[in-house]
Amino acid sequence: MKYLLDTANLNEIKEYTDIFPIDGITSNPSIVKREGKIKFFEHMNNIRSIIGIDKTLHIQVTSMETEGMLQDADTLLNKVDSQIYIKIPVTMEGIKAIKILKSRGIHVTATAIYGKSQAFLALEAGADYLAPYYNRMENIGIDSDDVIAGIAEMIDRYHYPAKILAASFKNAGQVERAFESGAQAATVDPSILKNVLEQPQITNAVNVFDSDWKSIFGNVPIAKLD
Hints:
Blueprint: E1 2-6, H1 10-19, E2 22-26, H2 29-33, H3 40-51, E3 56-60, H4 66-79, E4 85-89, H5 92-103, E5 108-113, H6 116-125, E6 129-132, H7 134-139, H8 144-158, E7 163-166, H9 172-181, E8 185-188, H10 190-197, H11 200-217
Parallel strand pairs: 1-2, 1-8, 2-3, 3-4, 4-5, 5-6, 6-7, 7-8
Helix pairs in contact: 1-3, 4-5, 6-8, 8-9
InterPro entries: Aldolase_TIM, TAL/FSA, Transaldolase_AS, TSA/FSA_arc/bac
Subcellular location: Cytoplasm
GO cellular component, one term: cytoplasm
């Protein structure tokens, strides 16, 4: 079970990778848009500098056709690093690109998945990660849990090396259900993880502990007791 941050904001990445057990960073054109007209390659290299080479960095192509996707991938590999995961939407053009990239030994994340059949094709094409869109599927009446469970079953049955990287969440409950359904990883907006640990019940419990301790020992913490 792995958590990734779905953001390209450098301050968020610095802050939350210090707090949470984060395995990597994902981005897409919509996430990059939030940062404004950045120096793109410099920005991605800054992300890599923050997270280190041992964590995964997933960057999406912007071209719509196979040849353009391959050119995007080559540029990203040359201007960021060879260990990044190239995110490719699972379309007709995308599946072709995934096959070619995997034949070259390049890491690939298949994205924009809305159903089992898409995922099964991406598995056969050799994708390393599959990114089903949990909340977006729910919004159009697709059973997200069933989709993820079906993908997980095929991975297990046929021993694919791929992992499910669930994406598109609106709350922590969806993330929990994705993991319970068989996702090995989830990429989430940092605010979702923050909200998990800042629930009023948790804060109240901690405040009671603090009050009870201070009622006996004052402001002296354990580390400074005689």
